[in-house]
């Protein structure tokens, strides 16, 4: 069975129904989207089963020629890095659909956008052909733009346009860099190709490699987002509808960090070493800056948005430590952040549906009125902080450990980020739920059954991954091990060269 | 070939374009300037009137003229010019054979369509 | 003796010529309420010409003493121009029927212009090229001014006319100089002559090329000869603007392609940089000015200037060893551009029934009032910006690829184009933003069936070409016009 293609394109089945059945009743539209996305999740479980944990390379590869004249292939494959991002995607989308009960306008378009997004994200995670990746990577933008712009709140149009332009700006250079690689490939291999595993063997002069690294890096750094390219994120997150925020945090940001591992490290190992310190410093700035700014937010959703900047800094730091623990921690952290922050955004959305405010000074005292909501929020917040026994702990620990062995100062600074994270999240938790009961909110409903179905899986996953991270790490480690080795070999070669030359 | 020429002659080729341009501007400028400087300037009312075949102009420069004259003029030119094509054709069409007859038929036919069009649009009616 | 004429090779042109005469004759006998019948009649003619062109696929025929050549390049563009003509006819029917226009004359003039377009890609002779170009332009001057009661339309026609005549004069002057230098008007002969030793007339030849290029630069509205386009586009009836922005512009480019890549290719080192400058300035100026537009047609006009800049880019790559690729990229871009642009204008035609001012603000709420049109328009705008999953992405892609393969200046040009593409997003997104994100008055919009059909067809084509770019990209490289 072509697991990957089925997983990628299954969500699309719902799209024509949603787009062309004009009079579709809203509940049916929701049902169609939910059905398509849950089926995808079930299929992805099959994918998990078909995945061979002991093999480090790409698995379940499918290959077909798409455009012969330019050597573009439909080439997809999965490895330890992408496997759990795929699982995360297929899990998050149906949860987001469940959680979008407050969407009442243009439901069918909303659902169609969600499904399109799912296909685009999955495609981006699974493509092994650079141009194919680029196509999926770009195809994300417009549905996301609509999701923020149509169903967002407040300055949604501004946020949507800002999001679109920032990411387009980054990816425009990505395209040029990809074409440059293609052109070099036709010079060195006789025919041009966009295939990742072939382009890996391209020999490039160091200066060229560094330029290309930067072109790729900017595209992904915008998505991650790394300071100072992060300014679109708080706006996009704050104004996006709940589901939009969940997808942004859990999935879109990951396309950035994923791209860094998959393309920057693998294609330009020499340049990755060259820029490693600079990137790590940017990541550290992100960790600390994100945490401090989050602390000062008065809007709960904005606070979580800035916490994303901080958390994604950890991921990047882990990746650019070039140690096995760091990289495995980074990959694990991508998944963990998706789940924890996704859950936080989901819960804030549910809270907002009830209180119609996200201002921390207007909230408070809600723990008694909506205990289930408060309890869920607490678990998610504790997970996000990195409490042992919950998912984030393992990832953050590995990242800090990996960084520490590579560079002690970076490790110490990263650890302060964890402390800051605990401060702002616990403080936010306290201001939202505790304090004197607020008369305004008396009689608010607690979580409904549908909402519980949306929240519960995330909490369960947090717990499972916290207690038994081996489930993921066993499958992640072989791949990260291989990538780290590849990158280290290059560094080794360089040293030898430098010695020989000197 | 240009690609083999040295960079110097390459830019020289542009220089000539520039030189021609400058010369053109200069020529016109000098002519105007010379006229300005040399010509005596004694305006009289009679001199300032519009020149119209030596006859005193009547009325304003912006005057309406009957648009029908224009259309008649147009039609005349069309059918007059036609003759220019017909005469040489008439001298040699025997040598060219039936093809030439057909071709001229098409030519006159298209003109006839023009006349037909003018007639249906009421252009030929004077009143 | 009488030269033999290959009637099969010129069958499409003959059919079109016959049709336009018939349209004019029939029209004068129709009563006013039935004048619109000129449109189906014209359509039948164009369709017949289209079928006749299809019989020429794979042909390689010359006639008129080598000055008229029907080869894959020509057939590709003939098919393209005739398809555009059919689409413009669809767009025109209701527009001209409902306004108080001379319908018969309009279709007659439109078909004349189409005839010029169809002749253009076959013209391999300076004179033939000139006649084709004039045949494209002269009727267009008139139909641009067809909204007689609107001063803006008069301005449109007049400006277009003056610029058109001026550019023709400049071009003709250049052509005469080329004839003087090479002793031939045939493009292949000129190419051979210019490759050899010119005996001290190199400079003259280069000046002549510069004149011809300038003339064409007016036609395709390249900077600094672009200023007429926005006024003309805005003032002309919308279907005419659609025609001008797609077919007429493409015709200019086909002429330019043949001249540059066949006749003047040995001077590429001279005119390449000229085109590089044209390209950079045209796309940048077009995009920057488009940013400030409030009126939809003006926005599309400036966008089409910017797009012309993208199409000029491959010309700048000639002589860098990627001639064939650059040529194919230019052709592909022109074809893809025409599809998405026509689609966008189809939606504008539909909206123009609601509001003749056609401000961008008038698109507000279209998503609710006419979801199909709004969706199609969104696809066109995304495609014009070159974002996947749309055909426009491949258009840009092929140009980028040619640029990067050329190396050196090509990479620099590609980067400039990338920056421009990002800038263009600002204004291309403005219309979807109005349609989707801004609430408008709720009034169901009725759009003529043919117009909706055109919009839906073009939108489907834009997506289909994205999924399988060889639908279009397969054909330009088959052209035998340019040696590798």
Number of helices of chain C: 20
Low-confidence stretches of chain A: none
Order of helices and strands of chain A: HHHEEHHHHHHHHHHHHHHHHH
Structural class of chain A: mainly alpha
* Gyration radius of chain A, rounded: 22 Å
Query: What are the segments of chain C in which pLDDT stays under 50 over at least 5 consecutive residues?
Result: none
Proportion in β-strands of chain A = under 5%
Based on CA atoms alone, the radius of gyration of chain C comes out at: 21 Å
How helical, in percent, are the residues of chain C? Answer: over 70%
The global form of chain C is globular
Shape of chain A: globular
Q: How many E-type strands of chain A?
A: 2
Report the biggest beta sheet of chain A as strand number plus sense, adding barrel if it closes: 2 strands, antiparallel
Strand order of the largest sheet of chain A: 1-2
Mean pLDDT of chain C: 89
**SSE-based structural type of chain C:** mainly alpha
Please write the string of helix (H) and strand (E) elements of chain C. HHEEHHHHHHHHHHHHHHHHHH
Chain-averaged pLDDT of chain A: 87
Oligomerization: heterotrimer
Q: Name the chain pair with the biggest interface and residue counts per chain.
A: A-C, 34 and 34 residues
Number of strands of chain C: 2
Structural write-up:
- The complex is a heterotrimer of chains A (502), B (127) and C (484).
- Chain A is mainly alpha-helical.
- Chain A is built from 20 helices and two strands.
- Chain A has one domain.
- Helices cover 75% and strands 3% of the residues of chain A.
- Chain A has a two-stranded antiparallel ribbon with strand order 1-2.
- In chain A, helix 6 packs antiparallel against helix 8 (156-188) and helix 11 packs antiparallel against helix 12.
- Chain B is mainly α.
- In chain B, helix 3 packs antiparallel against helix 4 (98-120).
- The N and C termini of chain B lie far apart (68 Å).
- Residues 1-5 of chain B have low confidence and may be disordered.
- The mean pLDDT of chain C is 89.
- Classes of the chains: A mainly alpha (502), B mainly alpha (127), C mainly alpha (484).
């Amino acid at each position: 069975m072509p697991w990957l293609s089925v997983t990628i394109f299954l969500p699309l089945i719902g799209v024509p129904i949603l787009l062309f059945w004009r009079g579709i009743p809203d509940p049916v539209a929701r049902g169609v989207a939910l059905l398509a996305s849950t089926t995808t999740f079930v299929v992805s479980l099959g994918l998990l089963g078909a995945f061979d944990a002991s093999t480090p390379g790409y698995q379940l590869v499918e290959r077909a020629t798409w455009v012969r004249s330019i050597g573009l292939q439909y080439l997809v494959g999965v490895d330890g890095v992408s496997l759990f991002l795929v699982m995360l995607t297929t899990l998050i989308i149906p949860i987001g659909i469940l959680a979008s009960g407050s969407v009442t306008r243009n439901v069918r378009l909303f659902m169609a956008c969600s499904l399109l997004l799912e296909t685009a994200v999955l495609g981006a995670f699974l493509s092994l052909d650079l141009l194919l990746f680029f196509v999926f990577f770009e195809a994300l933008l417009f549905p996301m733009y609509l999701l923020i712009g149509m169903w967002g709140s407040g300055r949604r149009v501004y946020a949507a346009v800002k999001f679109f332009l920032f990411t387009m700006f980054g990816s425009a250079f990505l395209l040029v860099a990809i074409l440059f690689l293609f052109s070099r490939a036709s010079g060195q291999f006789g025919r041009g190709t966009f295939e990742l595993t072939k382009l890996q063997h391209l020999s490039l002069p160091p200066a060229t490699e560094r330029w290309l690294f930067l072109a790729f890096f900017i595209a992904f750094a915008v998505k991650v987002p790394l300071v100072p390219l992060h300014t679109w994120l708080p706006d996009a997150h704050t104004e996006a509808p709940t589901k939009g925020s969940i997808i942004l945090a859990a999935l879109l940001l990951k396309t950035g960090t994923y791209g860094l591992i998959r393309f920057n490290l693998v294609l330009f190992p020499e340049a990755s070493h060259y820029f490693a310190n600079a990137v790590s410093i940017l990541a550290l700035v992100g960790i600390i800056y994100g945490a401090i700014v989050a602390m000062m937010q008065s809007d709960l959703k904005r606070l979580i948005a800035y916490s994303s900047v901080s958390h994604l800094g950890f991921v990047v730091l882990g990746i650019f430590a070039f140690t096995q623990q760091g990289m495995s921690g980074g990959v694990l952290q991508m998944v963990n952040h998706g789940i924890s922050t996704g859950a936080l955004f989901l819960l804030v959305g549910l809270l907002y549906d009830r209180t119609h405010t996200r201002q921390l000074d207007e909230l408070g005292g809600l723990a008694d009125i909506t205990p289930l909501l408060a309890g869920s929020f607490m678990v998610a917040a504790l997970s996000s902080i990195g409490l042992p026994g919950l998912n984030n702990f393992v990832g953050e620990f590995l990242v800090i450990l990996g960084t520490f062995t590579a560079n002690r100062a970076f490790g110490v600074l990263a650890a302060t980020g964890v402390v800051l994270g605990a401060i702002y999240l616990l403080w936010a938790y306290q201001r939202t739920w505790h304090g004197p009961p607020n008369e305004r909110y008396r009689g608010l409903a607690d979580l409904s059954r549908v909402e519980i179905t949306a929240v519960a899986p995330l909490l369960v996953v947090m717990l499972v991954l916290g207690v038994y991270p081996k489930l993921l790490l066993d499958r992640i480690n072989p791949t990260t091990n291989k990538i780290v080795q590849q990158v280290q070999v290059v560094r080794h070669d360089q040293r030898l060269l430098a010695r020989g030359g000197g | 070939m240009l690609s083999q020429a040295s960079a110097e002659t390459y830019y020289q080729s542009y220089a000539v374009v520039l030189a021609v341009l400058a010369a053109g501007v200069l020529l016109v400028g000098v002519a105007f300037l010379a006229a300005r400087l040399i010509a005596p300037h004694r305006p009289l009312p009679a001199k300032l009137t519009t020149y119209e075949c030596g006859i005193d102009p009547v009325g304003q420069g912006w005057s309406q003229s009957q648009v029908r004259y224009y259309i008649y003029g147009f039609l005349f030119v069309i059918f007059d010019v036609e003759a220019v094509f017909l005469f040489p054709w008439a001298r040699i069409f025997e040598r060219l054979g039936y093809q030439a007859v057909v071709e001229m038929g098409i030519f006159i036919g298209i003109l006839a369509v023009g006349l037909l069009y003018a007639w249906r649009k009421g252009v030929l009616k004077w009143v | 003796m009488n030269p033999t004429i290959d009637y099969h090779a010129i069958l499409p042109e003959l059919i079109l010529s016959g049709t336009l005469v018939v349209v004019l004759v029939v029209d004068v006998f129709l009563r006013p309420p039935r004048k619109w019948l000129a449109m189906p009649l014209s359509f039948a003619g164009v369709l017949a010409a289209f079928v006749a062109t299809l019989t020429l696929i794979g042909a390689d025929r010359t006639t008129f003493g080598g000055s008229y050549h029907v080869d894959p390049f020509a057939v590709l563009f003939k098919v393209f121009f005739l398809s555009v003509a059919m689409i413009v006819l669809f767009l025109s029917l209701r527009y001209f029927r409902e306004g108080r226009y001379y319908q018969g004359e309009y279709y007659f003039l439109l078909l004349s212009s189409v005839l010029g377009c169809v002749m253009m890609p076959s013209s391999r002779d300076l004179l033939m090229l000139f006649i084709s170009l004039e045949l494209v332009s002269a009727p267009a001057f008139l139909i641009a001014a067809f909204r007689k009661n609107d001063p803006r339309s008069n301005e449109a026609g007049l400006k277009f006319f003056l610029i058109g005549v001026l550019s023709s004069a400049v071009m003709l002057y250049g052509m005469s100089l080329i004839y003087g230098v090479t002793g031939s008007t045939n493009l292949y002969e000129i190419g051979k002559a210019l490759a050899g030793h010119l005996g001290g007339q190199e400079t003259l030849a280069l000046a002549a090329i510069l004149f011809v290029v300038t003339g064409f630069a007016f036609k395709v509205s390249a900077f600094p000869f672009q200023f007429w386009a926005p006024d003309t586009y805005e003032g002309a009836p919308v279907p005419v603007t659609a025609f001008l922005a797609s077919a007429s512009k493409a015709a200019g480019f086909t002429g330019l392609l043949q001249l540059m890549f066949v006749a003047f290719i040995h001077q590429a080192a001279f005119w390449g940089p000229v085109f590089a400058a044209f390209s950079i300035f045209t796309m940048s100026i077009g995009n920057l000015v488009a940013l400030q537009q409030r009126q939809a047609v003006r926005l599309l006009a400036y966008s089409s200037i910017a797009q012309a800049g993208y199409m000029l880019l491959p010309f700048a790559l000639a002589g860098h060893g990627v001639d064939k690729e650059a040529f194919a990229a230019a052709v592909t871009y022109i074809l893809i551009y025409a599809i998405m642009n026509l689609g966008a204008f189809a939606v504008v035609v539909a909206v123009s029934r609601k509001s003749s001012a056609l401000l961008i603000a008038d698109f507000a709420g279209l998503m609710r009032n006419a979801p199909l049109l709004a969706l199609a328009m969104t696809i066109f705008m995304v495609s014009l910006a070159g974002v996947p999953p749309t055909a426009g992405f491949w258009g840009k892609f092929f140009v980028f690829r040619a640029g990067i393969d050329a190396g050196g200046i090509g990479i620099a040009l590609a980067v400039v184009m990338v920056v421009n593409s990002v800038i263009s997003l600002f204004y291309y997104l403005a219309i979807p933003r109005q349609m989707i994100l801004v609430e408008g008055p709720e009034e169901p919009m009725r759009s003529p069936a043919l117009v909706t059909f055109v919009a839906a067809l073009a939108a489907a084509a834009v997506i289909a070409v994205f999924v399988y770019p060889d639908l279009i990209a397969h054909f330009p490289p088959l052209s035998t016009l340019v040696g590798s």
